[in-house]
Amino acid sequence: MIKNGKLIVVSGSAGSGKGTVLKELFNLAEYRYSVSATTREPRAGEADGVDYYFMTREDFLIKVAGGDMLEYVEYCGNFYGTMREPVDKMLSDGYSVILEIEVVGALNIKENFPEAVLIFLSPPSYMELERRLRVRNSESEQIIKERLEKSKKEAESIIEYAYLVINETGEQKRTAFELHCIAEAEKYENRTRKDVPREQDLILKTAEANKIDAQKAENFLRNYFS
Ligand code: 5GP
User: Fold this and answer.
1) Structural domain count of the chain
2) Reduced to 3 states, what is the DSSP secondary structure of residue 107?
3) 73 CB within 6 A, ligand 1
């Protein structure tokens, strides 16, 4: 077996269905997940070393100063970061590694690891995103509004991603398969076309990944958060 793991960065707003899709993805092949470090409090059911490495701000900043973080951000008042050593090890062992991180961190990874593949997972529409956040019924109106605003802001960076994959409601397995196809294809060639403008490349790859025609992909990208 040829061992040539890829660094796959997946971002998506709250309500994009990231968590479920990634669970399905891990059933499809031997991906490795990079467990991030964070200073936020664990939520019910979260375990240290599984969901995150939970640490104090002081310990986190010591790791940053020691160069132990591949990237980190301060997000909603807490630090989140990707630990360098486990990621290096998993990649050198030949595994594809999934980083599930927000947009600023993803763009830092792109800067430092141009060979990383950035995938933005989106709900089918802004209205659907709003509906999913409300159905969860776990957040106050204020927090829902904040998350929607944040999603709009994050969507401005979609152009920096290599792919946009639409997670249609109830289609998490299919979405996971699309991510898997992208990861496999990217293992063997860098599929970013340098001869077409960035926007056109994203439109073409979005069409291909979601099996829609280019016009539909372009409309989706133009209208998504406008
Ligand atoms: P949550 O607190 O809901 O688990 O995560 C909040 C946000 O932080 C999510 O968008 C998640 O993708 C992002 N995140 C989690 N770990 C990391 C990390 O290591 N680096 C960066 N940049 N973002 C992260």
Assistant:
1) 2
2) helix
3) yes
